Structure formats: structure tokens, C-alpha cells
Amino acid sequence: MRVLVVDDSRVMRQIVIRTLRQAGYDWDVREASNGAEGLAAVQSDEPDVVLSDWNMPEMTGIEFLKSLRAAGFGTPFGFVTSEGSPQMREQAEAAGALFLIAKPFTAEGFRDVIEPVLA
Questions:
Q1: In total, how many domains does the chain have?
Q2: CATH for 9
Q3: Which of 31, 53, 70, 93 has a CA that sits 20 to 30 A from residue 40's CA?
Q4: Backbone torsions φ then ψ of 100, nearest 5 degrees
């Protein structure tokens, strides 16, 4: 599996990658620091799944997701973000996200949310 981790914080990207590995996912990981970089990365070499932050400069996560869908990409997409309000979850789902993992998160929490998506 190939995953694209998109977050404007390098430290948070590393935490997400470490948590994926702790959850047992030894995936090929690529990184992007905002939605615009993420969009370019998907367009050049589509990954199997995208994990994106919501609040980023240049292009937010929700703008990134909407741009992907508008361009015809159906790449499985999930948010890993510090905000998990019902309104954000509703907006994410309406835009085509498969899940939203709210920080702080655990390896078990990642597995619980990602496993059904992979099945």
C-alpha cells in the first residue's frame, strides 16, 4: 500500500507515520506539506490512500479533497485533524472523505477506522 500523508507540520507528519507503523501498517509513505502539494502528488502518482490534516496554508484539507474529487480522483481519503466536531465530520463526509480521526489518536484508533476502509 502507498499512503500520502499531508500536514503542514513536519512533526505531525512523522507522528502520523509512526502511528501507522505502530498500528501494523508498513506502507510506502510519501509526504506533502499542504493541500496544493498533496494535489500535485496525487496527480503525478496516485497513492492507495490519503491522510490529510484539515487546517493548512496554501490549500486546506477540505479544499484539497474537493479538488481531488472535481478532478475525477476517487482516491480513498481520510482526515487526521485536531478538530472532530459533528459539523466537520458532516462536511468531510459530504465532500467524500471516508473517515476523520481526531487528535490525539492511538494506533488502535487508527486500526479501528482504517480497517473497514481497506476491506
A1: 1
A2: 3.40.50.2300
A3: 93
A4: -135, 120
Give the number of other Cβ atoms within 10 Å of residue 88's Cβ. Answer: 17
In angstroms, the CA 89 to CA 94 distance is 9
pTM of the model: 0.94
Residue type, 113: V
Determine the structural domain holding residue 82 and report its residue range: 2-105
The CA distance from 100 to 113, in Å, is: 8
CA distance 72 to 5: 20
